[in-house]
Design brief:
single chain; 400 residues; mainly alpha; 78% helix; 0% strand; Growth Hormone, Chain: A; 19 helices
């Protein structure tokens, strides 16, 4: 999501199109849907993957951790390596890699090879997101940017609503390998759609290492990066193990986990569009509200989610809050660095994905060595710290 008004620097940096290309926006949205589904699909399949490949649930969590960490490093590196390469060619290549990686995951004979293919998924996720996060300014006129960016990030919510729950359902009915095969087919369809409608997009400003490091001198960017790390790390430390939490803490049968994740995703999609509507007016207040809501949702799951009904309700509240995180923080970064949108976005994508990976890793360690409740307490504490960081940026005029 971006602001309702584009600054001259923004439009110059991005290259203002003479008309809006909504089919291309929709194809990129399908891409974000496929990427998020690919990255998070194992969350709903940890038990079946662990059983099928004879590893613990904590070890199976590496299928979430590894690609996220790889994506975190790939996000700033891929734009630097490709320089001014046509972004259309880059996105097509990365989606082709995603197609192959998911097919390889489906056919992997052992856990080590599965993790190897998940590394390729991470490269595709990081590289694609680094460009797609701020792509609306390249595809539509300035007046359409807010709506287009909300649509692109709607792919994230749609992945949680349809992708991950349906993948979990397919995994329950036909096995986790079939779920990964279906994901490969989705990536192939996305590749064809991008090939058909995506215009040529030569980078107007190549991303160089110096341009990336310069962003850290911007106080608004620094605050956004820290808030992203805390919110995403805490969320995924807890959410990676939401399936066993629902089963063991709330007493919910495994077969109902998929429908409940569907509800989480539906709430997230609503949260995405609600945040999109409010962010164009008050970025700081909107992002602060999101952080406060997440601070309450995760610890309350432990206190009030000890029944099936309580667990289901708090999962929906949690999803509603987290649904605004991506669009909220991306808006924050664009407003904080309007003259270097792709550089700031690539850094944001990097820390976002690294936080997913390290959050999932922290959750795995806590679950295997301490308790299933620990990641939920950790998530709430991280969200509280993020709220404090966001609050301290209240005097920044650009973020109001």
């Amino acid at each position: 999501m971006t602001t309702a008004e584009q600054t001259p620097a923004q439009t110059q940096e991005a290259g203002t199109p003479d008309r809006s290309r909504w089919p291309a926006v929709c194809a990129v949205t399908l891409g974000t849907f496929a990427l998020v589904t690919a990255e998070q699909l194992p969350i709903g399949l940890l038990t079946s993957v662990g059983t099928g490949l004879s590893v613990s649930e904590g070890t199976a969590g590496l299928t979430v951790t590894v690609p996220s960490i790889v994506a975190g490093f790939a996000a700033p590196l891929v734009p630097v390596v490709v320089g001014s390469l046509d972004r259309r060619v880059l996105l097509l290549g990365l989606m082709a890699l995603m197609t192959v990686a998911n097919l390889g995951s489906a056919l992997a004979p052992d856990f080590a090879l599965l993790v190897g293919f998940r590394v390729l998924v991470g490269i595709a996720v990081g590289g694609f997101w680094a460009v797609a996060a701020g792509l609306a300014v390249r595809l539509v006129t300035p007046a359409d940017v807010p709506r287009a960016t909300t649509v692109v990030f709607g792919g994230v919510g749609a992945a949680n609503v349809f992708g991950v729950p349906l993948g979990t359902l397919v995994g329950d009915l036909a096995g986790w390998r079939i779920a990964f095969s279906a994901l490969s087919a989705l990536a192939l369809v996305t590749l064809i759609a991008l090939l058909a409608v995506l215009p040529r997009m030569v980078a107007s400003q190549a991303v160089r290492p110096r341009l990336l490091t310069e962003q850290f001198r911007n106080p608004g960017v620094r605050a956004g990066i820290i808030a992203t790390v805390l919110l995403v790390f805490g969320h995924f430390a807890a959410y990676t193990f939401v399936s066993p939490a629902l089963q063991k803490l709330s007493g919910i049968d495994e077969h109902y986990v998929g429908p409940l994740l569907f509800g989480f995703g539906a709430a997230g999609m609503i949260g995405n569009f609600v945040a999109g509507a409010t962010l164009s007016r008050r970025v700081h207040r909107s992002v602060l509200t999101i952080a406060v809501a997440m601070t309450a949702a995760m610890p309350l799951f432990l206190l009030l989610g000890r029944t099936a009904t309580g667990g289901a309700i708090l999962l929906i509240v949690w999803g509603l809050a987290f649904g605004g995180v991506s669009v909220g923080l991306q808006t924050w970064m664009i407003k904080a660095a309007p003259q270097a949108v792709e550089a700031a976005s690539s850094l944001w994508v990097a820390v976002f994905n690294l936080s997913i990976g390290f959050g999932a890793l922290a959750g795995s360690i806590i679950v295997d060595t301490l308790t299933l409740q620990g990641p939920l307490w950790l998530g709430g504490a991280c969200a509280l710290l993020a709220a404090l960081v966001i609050w301290t940026a209240r005097t920044n005029e650009a973020l109001r």
